[in-house]
Design a protein that fits this description.
This protein has eight helices and five strands. The chain is mostly helical. Keywords: Membrane, Transmembrane, Transmembrane helix.
Length: 272
């Protein structure tokens, strides 16, 4: 009898549900995440505005917007706070391929959504574009959390992932509607604030779906540390924003030059 109790006790000790720490690196990650999300949205929406005014370079502008909004404003903004997630008693490892796919999914989804929405506000196109972007964000969040591995097992609460996807669809549709229907500065600022808050809501709801059962007898988790993947993406994301920011700043000068009388435009002569 004693041996049976000892064996059962040892089994319970070896396999136990673990509590997840959300902010193991500190609460400053919340502010950084919101800032990254807002910056990505700001640059991306500026690219969308210029995409409306250009027929020839519209795909280029929308591509830049997709990278800024999807790659930086959504993916990077959800990967940054994920750095603070920890489980006492084990290390977390992540599958790099799954994380890479999640990044590609959201960039493609945002690009497709922007193409569907078009230049003018039309309800069917707005709903379709918001749905595509929201579903893409939900799939991205699922891929992010499913890439986690621990010494034991990882469980996902499906209904929370569904809720995260619903939030993403609502936020995407709402942001697109506000951005297209209201041209005043306050509305643009409101769009960015709504976007950043919505991305945070999607992230925290999705991560809440994670559950962990630790097993001392299980193999060590495979994969890489999240920091080793996110930090290079953070650097690349910062560099990726530099090009559209420069293009946005230069583009107004080109439009102003186009309105000047050709006779008054400066003539550039080759150096002799």
């Amino acid at each position: 009898m004693a041996d049976t109790l000892a064996s059962a006790t040892g089994l319970l000790a070896a396999e136990a549900n673990a509590e997840m720490e959300w902010f193991a690196m500190g609460y400053w990650l919340i502010g950084l995440s919101l800032g990254v999300s807002a910056l990505g949205a700001l640059v991306g929406l500026a690219c969308v505005v210029h995409g409306r005014r250009s027929a020839r370079f519209r795909p280029v502008w929308l591509g830049a917007a997709a990278i800024s909004i999807g790659g930086v404003g959504i993916w990077l903004a959800t990967a940054v706070p994920l750095l603070g997630v920890a489980v006492p008693g084990t290390v977390l490892r992540y599958d790099a391929a799954t994380l890479g796919v999640s990044l590609a999914v959201i960039v493609i989804a945002v690009f497709a959504g922007l193409v569907i929405v078009g230049r003018e506000l039309r309800l069917p196109r707005l709903v379709a574009g918001g749905l595509v972007m929201g579903l893409g964000a939900g799939l991205m969040q699922y891929l992010q959390v499913s890439s986690v591995d621990v010494q034991g097992s990882v469980e996902l609460t499906v209904w929370l992932l569904v809720v995260a996807t619903v939030i993403a669809v609502i936020v995407a549709t709402g942001c697109l509607w506000v951005f297209q229907s209201m041209q005043v500065l306050a509305a643009r600022i409101g769009t960015i604030v709504l976007f950043a808050a919505g991305v945070a809501g999607v992230y925290y709801t999705g991560v809440a779906a994670l559950g962990f059962t630790l097993d001392d007898a299980a193999e060590s988790p495979a994969g890489m540390q999240l920091f080793d993947f996110v930090f290079p993406m953070f650097v690349l994301g910062s560099l990726a924003l530099a090009l559209p920011i420069t293009a946005v700043l230069v583009a107004p000068d080109r439009r102003e030059l186009a309105t000047v009388d050709p006779a008054l435009r400066p003539v550039l002569e080759p150096a002799r």
